[in-house]
Design a protein that fits this description.
Elements (H helix, E strand, L loop, with lengths): L3 H10 L15 H14 L1 H12 L10 H25 L5 H10 L1 H33 L7 H17 L2 H31 L12 E2 L10 H15 L8 H4 L8 H29 L11 E2 L13 H10 L5 H34 L17 H17 L4 H5 L4 H24 L3 H65 L4 H4 L6 E6 L5 H12 L4 E8 L2 H13 L6 E5 L6 H14 L4 E10 L3 H4 L4 H10 L5 E9 L1 H7 L28
Parallel strand pairs: 3-4, 3-6, 4-5, 6-7
Antiparallel strand pairs: 1-2
Helix pairs in contact: 2-8, 2-11, 2-13, 3-9, 3-11, 4-9, 4-11, 4-16, 4-17, 5-6, 5-16, 6-7, 6-13, 6-14, 6-16, 6-17, 7-13, 7-14, 8-11, 8-12, 8-13, 9-17, 12-13, 13-14, 16-17, 21-23
């Protein structure tokens, strides 16, 4: 029969790959950059915008803080990139911050990092996709009413591409990332050259005034400091995804650590150049953008229906000559693509981290399994579902989602740098070589600086974003932390309970086996179950039925006697027409009467070939099994009988055992002529 599901799966995911082909999926630096660094590289499309959105709460007066805030973000990125290069060399197994912290600060601290990163990966998908959709709407405003649908469609597309495997997704995502890098650099260079030549580009919003919010006008002292710190924490979105390379070291080609460190350095340099360029150009072009369009003055229309273009869209329009220019549409297309594909950083980081956590028994084991294309498919699907739910709940609105962002990043940054300081302290205690000691001391200084700086930023982010919605990210991380500890306790208890002290104790056979075959009527599945039960040679074998309908039960007893079946038929009374409860009680009574014996229950079942047929059969059997499995000393055996639909589902020539002996016709095997009757 034509398998529609299988064909669709192959079209979406591709052919299944053998485990031995895992080496073919390893990445060169050229492909690793767009896969693992698309998030921090693409964040330049909105990091500058986030700074301006906060500063313009106080009107135009505070925009002169923009260069200083941008300089702080650049300095922070340099420190974080240098710090994570140390992590890549010291811990090349791919655990990243989680492994560093677990090894040096303990499992509980490691779980804090893991929970924070898992939350942040989900937010990366939601924010990147929502921001990409924003840029599409900036170019085509009529799509605004379809914002959520577009966002969910892009998450589904990313999921399908990642299910095909890391290498294939890298090939797909490489071109848009490099086009975006090239386009932004060309735009920045063109705009700054025009500025130097006296023809500075002017943004369309430069003519708009901004009415400050009442609470943010004429700020001084502590209030002004809080505004600047809040703008700085929003600009720190440029650092999201920096740690993904340290988590993905095993995906690189050899030498893994060296290639990962080089990729991280390239990412840092490119991201800094683009962020500084976009911010400088935004200042030169006098971009004015606000969280609430009704703060703008001079727009000449209904402010509530006025759609502001993103910063990157306004710059492209100003530099390349308007909204209809080729350069404008190129930048918008590349920006939208790279922002959407930036979620790919999370689609690689989340499954890898969840796989490691599953291997350490902090998450369900299924997350450690590789799919047909050697990707961690269950992790990919879990990420897609949660991120899609967030996009739907927040209507794919970047401003609402951004407040939940970056908290997890700086939690992992801070703890991992503290862990690295302890790592170098331990190494220095045992390292006798002077040259190696100098390298360790230099690395310790870098990580110490990183720990101090990122801790300060974490405090700033907590203070400025907690009441804006970041508390939800904190709550989610705490719930994850508690859940992972609970999962680990369950696995530990199970392992302890199943551990074998002396194999001889477990290999002692039961005194006797008491066989019970469940019977509803006399048909082929019942007779097969009886024959199968006999093959076990139990000490005692009996058939068991429940008297739900007196007439049917009487007919069954009469038919049983007529066929002279040499297995006694036991009838259980059921005045309330229940089936499961009388059977379970009877089996438990057998166990109480013979506690050293094992009761083997044989249940005849139909095997069907279509999903809808399962709704018509086997419900009683399933419920009985689920109850009997919880009874100690009871073994439950399903005895299947394949109906015609099941036999034709995958094997057209399938037949019931014994059909040849009974003289039943045989379907021809491929390549063989049909059997002839004499």
């Amino acid at each position: 029969m034509f398998n529609v599901t299988g064909v669709l799966k192959r079209l979406v995911i591709g052919r299944a790959m053998r485990s031995e082909e895992l080496g073919e999926t390893l990445l060169s630096k050229r492909l690793a950059l767009p896969i693992f660094a698309s998030d921090p590289l693409s964040s330049v499309a909105y990091a500058t915008q986030e700074i301006l959105l906060v500063l313009t709460l106080g009107g135009l007066a505070y925009l002169h803080f923009t260069p200083w805030i941008a300089a702080g973000v650049v300095a922070l990125m340099a420190v974080v990139v240098l710090s994570y290069r140390q992590v890549v060399h010291a811990y090349p197994s791919g655990g990243g911050s989680y492994e560093v912290v677990s090894t040096n600060l303990g499992p509980s601290a490691g779980l804090v990092v893991a929970a924070s990163l898992l939350v942040d990966y989900v937010m990366t998908v939601a924010v990147s996709v929502a921001s990409g959709v924003d840029n599409i709407i900036s170019a085509i405003p009529s799509l605004a009413e379809h914002r959520v649908l577009l966002a969910l469609a892009f998450v589904a597309l990313l999921t399908a591409m990642n299910l095909r495997g890391v290498r294939e997704s890298g090939r797909t995502f490489a071109a848009p990332t490099y086009l975006f890098i090239g386009g932004v650099i060309i735009m920045v260079a063109t705009g700054l050259i025009r500025y130097v030549l006296g023809d500075a580009p002017v943004a369309e919003s430069a003519a708009y005034g901004i009415q400050p919010e009442a609470s943010s006008a004429h700020l001084t002292g502590l209030a002004l400091l809080m505004l600047v710190l809040r703008a700085f924490s929003s600009g720190c979105t440029a650092l999201t995804g920096v740690e993904a390379i340290s988590n993905g070291v095993p995906a690189f080609r050899k030498p893994k650590s060296k290639n990962a460190a080089s990729t991280m350095a390239a990412m840092g340099i490119i991201a800094v150049v683009m962020f500084v360029g976009v911010t400088t150009l935004a200042i030169v072009a006098k971009v004015h953008i606000t969280q609430n369009s009704c703060q703008l003055t001079g727009i000449g229309g209904n402010c509530e229906t006025f759609t502001q273009k993103t910063v990157i869209a306004q710059l492209a329009s100003a530099v390349f000559g308007g909204d209809n220019s080729i350069g404008f549409f190129f930048i918008q297309a590349a920006t939208a693509l790279v922002l959407i594909l930036a979620a790919n950083t999370a689609f690689n980081g989340f499954p890898l981290l969840s796989s490691i956590l599953a291997q350490h028994r902090y998450l369900p084991r299924q997350l450690h399994n590789r799919g047909d294309r050697l990707a961690f498919s269950n992790g990919i699907l879990a990420l897609a579902v949660v991120a899609g739910a967030l996009l739907w709940a927040y209507k794919a609105d970047v401003t609402s989602l951004i407040h939940l962002y970056i908290l997890g990043v700086f939690t992992s940054f801070t703890l991992s740098q503290l862990g690295m300081v302890r790592h170098w302290n331990r190494a220095l205690r045992t390292e006798p070589d002077p040259a190696a000691r100098r390298r360790h001391q230099s690395a310790r200084v870098i990580n110490s600086l990183g720990a101090v700086v990122t801790a300060l930023v974490l405090v700033i982010v907590l203070i400025t974003k907690f009441t804006q919605g970041a508390w939800l990210a904190v709550v989610a991380a705490v719930i994850l932390w508690v859940m992972m500890r609970g999962i680990r306790r369950h696995y530990d208890r199970t392992a302890t309970e199943l551990a074998v002290a002396d194999p001889r104790d477990e290999l002692v056979p039961p005194s006797r086996v008491l066989g019970v075959v469940l019977v509803s009527t006399i048909h082929k599945p019942t007779l097969r179950a009886l024959a199968y039960a006999r093959a076990f040679k139990p000490y005692r074998l009996e058939a068991l039925t429940v008297a739900v309908d007196k007439t049917e039960t009487g007919d069954l007893q009469q038919r049983w006697a007529e066929l002279d079946i040499d297995v006694p038929l036991k009838v259980l009374a059921s005045p309330y027409r229940e089936i499961t409860k009388p059977v379970v009680e009877y089996v438990r009574t057998m166990r109480r009467e013979s506690p050293r014996d094992v009761v083997a229950v044989f249940i005849p079942e139909y095997v069907v070939g279509h999903w809808w047929e399962n709704l018509l059969h086997n419900q009683s059997a399933l419920w009985l099994k689920s109850r009997l499995l919880f009874t100690p000393g009871v073994m439950v055996t399903s005895v299947p009988w394949q109906l015609t639909s099941a036999a034709h589902a995958d094997h057209p020539a399938a037949r019931a055992p014994g059909s040849v002996r009974r003289g039943e016709p045989t379907a021809p095997q491929p390549g063989n002529p049909p059997a002839r009757r004499s």
